């Protein structure tokens, strides 16, 4: 399986190698918040070459009730909302933030004098300072913070085209692969357990053709590979 980022907080879709979206970012945020409250997540502690597979399997088997059982109710509601979002759905950030309003205490009211800060702000933090009062002529220097501006630069690229299948029996594997090849997709990742396959086909592999072979002998491991040649 392919996992991008930290395995502990990665979304289930990231484990499966699917294209990420804002939904996956929010799912990772939910895991992070719950970890900060509980101090531990149920899928911590797995080791070995198939760690990513075991973590993904545990995440898929852990319900929102179990994961947030020691957290205030808003954490469960937040997790349920983000995991039920569609791939291209625009998150309702205002509603997600409002879930936690009940957990934030009203701050104590204290009078704060801000006259000086307002004057500095009106002058944009600049002031005139006289140097060496006795020196003729007087020198003046203007102090202040230099102006800065952020510029974002990125390389535009075409969106990824992927197709994924899971719980595929051996007899149907060839059908999915041939259909993907007809559409310009080639195998980029596979995993297998209990004679069922998870298959990811990608248009960005750079392959022009691909040969695969399904072995009838399974290794003594949970995860098995199907390698393009």
UniProtKB/TrEMBL annotation:
Domain (DUF7477): residue spans on this chain: 119-221
Pfam families: DUF7477 (PF24289)
Signal peptide residues on this chain, from the entry's feature table: none
Origin superkingdom: Eukaryota
Family: Belongs to the protein kinase superfamily. CK1 Ser/Thr protein kinase family. Casein kinase I subfamily.
Protein name: DUF7477 domain-containing protein
Source organism: Aegilops tauschii subsp. strangulata (Goatgrass)
């Amino acid at each position: 399986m392919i996992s991008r980022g930290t395995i502990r907080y990665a979304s289930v879709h990231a484990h499966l190698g699917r294209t990420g979206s804002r939904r996956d970012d929010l799912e990772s945020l939910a895991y992070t918040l719950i970890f900060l409250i509980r101090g531990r997540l149920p899928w911590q502690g797995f080791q070995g070459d198939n760690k990513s597979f075991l973590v993904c399997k545990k995440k898929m088997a852990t319900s929102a009730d179990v994961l947030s059982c020691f957290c205030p109710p808003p954490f469960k509601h937040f997790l349920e909302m983000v995991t039920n979002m569609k791939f291209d759905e625009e998150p309702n950030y205002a509603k997600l933030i409002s879930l936690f309003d009940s957990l934030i205490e009203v701050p104590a009211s204290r009078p704060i004098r801000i006259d000086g800060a307002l004057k500095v702000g009106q002058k944009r933090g600049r002031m005139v300072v006289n140097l060496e009062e006795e020196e003729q002529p007087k020198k003046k220097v203007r102090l202040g913070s230099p102006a800065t501006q952020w510029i974002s630069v990125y390389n535009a690229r075409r969106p990824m085209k992927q197709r994924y299948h899971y719980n595929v029996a051996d007899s149907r594997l060839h059908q999915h692969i041939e259909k993907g090849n007809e559409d310009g997709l080639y195998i980029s990742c596979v995993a297998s357990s209990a004679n069922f396959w998870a298959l990811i086909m990608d248009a960005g592999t750079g392959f022009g053709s691909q040969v695969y072979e399904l072995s009838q002998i399974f290794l003594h491991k949970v995860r098995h590979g199907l390698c393009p040649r």
